[in-house]
Each structure stands twice: as structure tokens, then as C-alpha cells.
């Protein structure tokens, strides 16, 4: 019997997603909703926050475009979008503080920058935002599933992550976090019939006086991709059962081995910040001798999957990698460095 369409199973999976999502984001279960990708939650923020003409939103100048285009659209509403300049791919809290103006109303930043793995100071940024009465939005795509997160403690208002990367889930899945406190301020940019509290009774559909769900579920959109939900629930359960700290430890240990090799080899230069507070499960490096594009092509040909991002080779290691993968990468780099 195919149970994929079973309504009860669907709600079981949704509940699992919310329970695991709360562990991943470090918040309450009722603050987690199912989105379809990172963009979903960023749009909820951009078009749901009470921003008005004359206000300003501040973004780092090297954000992944998912956390840029929804904000840029606000220019049509008279809202200014300003960028904080990076310092060699890094950001200090002072860079943000100095970029704030009297008009700034929101700061939207990635937990981990996509191109070099720089982990931002979310705790300190959260303090800064609350001190100044600013909304704080976090694109968590490159952190959710591999770095422990504490959105509630860090005073984040809205966060969002697609499932298709570190959460090991199908494309078309994602979670968003919206703090209980934030709900009071939000002007939802959309409404959905499944965001209403039906009390599991669908026999009175044309009674339009139903209240919205109190939880983040009220911002979810219509009928769910049920097959995806089951896969998503399973993956999130798998990751949270392992424990985010253990996942992080596994990934960082593999990158330590790679970093030790790269630091010793003059042909390469690490471009990530590997200090404890700013490192992540992403390490990037470039070549001092050869062309970085050729090196990347060479690795791909050998079946070593890395990404070329903004002039560096990006190595993203996760649960499916082990020391033999890192040894294979080091072996290939060693050969390339010798010019063979
Ligand atoms: C920081 C960051 N945000 C968002 C995304 C993707 O956004 P979405 O899940 O909406 O496709 C990526 C990369 O795929 C990313 O690196």
C-alpha cells in the first residue's frame, strides 16, 4: 500500500520537521515552519517586516543572491538597501556598527558566508540589533545542519535555510524560524488556507472566520510536497540524532587535516578564516603558482568535487566524507603542486 498521500502520516512528518528544526535553529518548535528553500523565509522577512519608505536595510556586500534580490525589490517601495563592505572576506561587528545610520531598521546576514565559509558573530550582531531596535534576519543555508545554532539566544527575528545542502534533503524543502516576539510585528506578505487552525476538521470549509494558527505554521503556503516532507523529516531526524556538535566536530577534524597540508605547501594559500569563532565546515584556498580554474578542472576530472567560488576552491565536507576523501584531495594537490 502506498502511504505517501496519507494525511495522518503527513502531519507526523511535519511534526518531526518542526521538532528537529527547533534543535537545528535553537528555538521552540512552534517557531519553525516548513518553507520550500532559503528564499521562502527571506521573502517572508523582506515583505513581512514593518518597513516603510525612508527606512534602510543593511546587508554584507558578499551575500549569496538569495539574501539580496528579495531586499533589492524593496527599493521600489522607497526603502534603501545598503551594503557593509567586507574586510578581505571577513566582517567584524564594528564594521556593521559603523555602517548603521539613523534610517537603518533591519540587518540581514548569512550565518556562514557562502564563498569562504566565514562564520559571522551572530551573538554580538544580535546584541547590536537589539540595542538599536533593529530587526535581525539570518540566511542560515550554509550553517543549518553542520553548525550548532542558537537563534533564540542570539536574538534573531527571522532565519531560513533550504534543505538541499547541509540538511541532506531534497531540493524544494526548507525550514524557516520566526521568533514568537516577531510574530506580533509581522505583516504577512501572503496568507494560506492551511495556515488556518482547522482543528483537524475539513467539513466546514466555507466558514471563513477561522483564526490563523498561533505557530509559524500560519506562514506556510498551501498543500505540501508530501513525498519531500517524509524525506526531509527523515534527514533532519538523522542529523539531530547524531547531534549538531558531533557533526561539526567530524567536519572540522577533516578540514584540520587539509589545513595542515595547505599550510605547509607554498603552492597554496588558505583564504578562509580558520580561527575558532569564524571557521565553519567550508574551507577555501587558492593557488599561488597555477591558475585556480585549471586546478579546479583537474580536481573535477579526478572525481574530487569542490566548487570554484570567487577565485578560490571551496571544500565543503560533511557526514558522507571521511579521511580517505581528504587524503585523495591532498594527494591530488600534492601532484598538482609538483607540476605533474
Ligand atoms: C548562503 C546561501 N543562501 C541561500 C542559498 C540558496 O538559496 P535557496 O535555498 O533559496 O535556493 C545558497 C546556495 O545555494 C547559499 O549559499
List keywords for this structure.
340 residues; four-stranded antiparallel sheet; globular; binds pyridoxal-5'-phosphate
Characterize the structure shown.
The protein has 340 residues and is an alpha/beta fold. 35% of the residues lie in helices and 16% in strands. It has 10 helices and 11 strands. The protein has helices spanning 7-25, 38-48, 69-72, 93-99, 122-132, 180-183, 226-242, 244-264, 292-301, 323-337; strands at 32-35, 56-60, 80-84, 104-110, 135-139, 158-162, 174-178, 268-270, 282-287, 307-309, 312-316. The chain has a 7-stranded mixed beta sheet with strand order 1-7-6-5-4-2-3, with helices on both faces. The longest helix has 21 residues, at 244-264. It binds pyridoxal-5'-phosphate. Residues 37-39, 64, 66-67, 110, 114, 139, 141-142, 162 line the site of pyridoxal-5'-phosphate. Pyridoxal-5'-phosphate binds at residues 37-39, 64, 66-67, 110, 114, 139, 141-142, 162.
Amino acid at each position: 500500500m502506498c502511504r505517501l498521500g496519507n494525511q495522518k502520516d503527513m502531519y507526523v512528518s511535519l511534526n518531526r520537521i518542526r521538532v528537529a528544526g527547533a534543535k537545528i535553529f535553537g528555538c521552540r518548535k512552534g517557531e519553525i515552519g516548513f518553507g520550500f528553500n532559503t528564499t521562502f523565509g527571506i521573502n517572508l522577512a523582506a515583505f513581512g517586516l514593518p518597513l516603510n519608505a525612508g527606512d534602510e536595510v543593511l546587508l554584507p556586500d558578499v551575500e549569496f543572491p538569495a539574501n539580496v534580490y528579495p531586499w533589492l525589490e524593496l527599493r521600489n517601495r522607497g526603502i534603501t538597501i545598503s551594503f557593509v563592505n567586507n574586510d578581505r572576506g571577513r566582517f567584524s561587528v564594528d564594521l556593521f556598527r559603523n555602517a548603521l545610520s539613523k534610517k537603518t531598521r533591519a540587518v540581514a546576514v548569512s550565518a556562514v558566508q557562502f564563498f569562504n565559509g566565514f562564520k559571522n558573530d551572530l551573538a554580538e550582531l544580535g546584541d547590536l540589533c537589539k540595542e538599536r531596535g533593529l530587526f535581525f534576519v539570518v540566511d542560515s543555508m550554509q550553517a543549518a545542519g553542520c553548525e550548532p545554532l542558537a537563534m533564540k539566544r542570539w536574538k534573531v527575528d527571522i532565519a531560513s535555510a533550504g534543505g538541499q545542502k547541509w540538511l541532506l534533503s531534497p531540493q524544494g524543502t526548507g525550514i524557516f524560524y520566526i521568533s514568537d516576539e516577531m510574530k506580533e510585528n509581522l505583516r504577512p506578505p501572503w496568507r494560506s488556507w492551511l495556515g488556518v487552525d482547522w482543528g483537524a476538521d475539513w467539513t466546514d470549509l466555507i466558514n471563513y472566520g477561522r483564526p490563523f494558527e498561533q505557530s509559524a505554521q500560519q506562514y506556510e503556503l498551501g498543500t505540501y510536497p508530501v513525498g519531500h516532507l517524509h524525506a526531509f523529516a527523515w534527514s533532519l531526524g538523522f542529523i539531530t540524532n547524531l547531534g549538531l556538535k558531533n557533526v561539526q566536530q567530524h567536519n572540522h577534524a577533516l578540514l584540520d587535516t587539509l589545513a595542515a597540508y595547505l599550510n605547509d605547501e607554498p603552492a597554496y594559500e588558505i583564504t578562509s578564516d580558520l580561527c575558532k569563532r569564524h571557521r565553519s565546515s567550508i574551507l577555501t584556498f587558492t593557488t599561488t603558482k597555477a591558475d585556480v580554474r585549471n586546478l579546479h578542472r583537474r580536481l573535477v576530472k579526478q572525481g574530487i568535487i569542490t566548487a570554484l567560488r570567487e577565485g578560490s576552491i571551496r571544500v565543503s565536507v560533511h557526514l558522507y566524507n571521511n579521511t580517505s576523501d581528504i587524503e585523495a584531495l591532498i594527494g591530488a594537490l600534492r601532484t598538482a603542486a609538483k607540476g605533474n
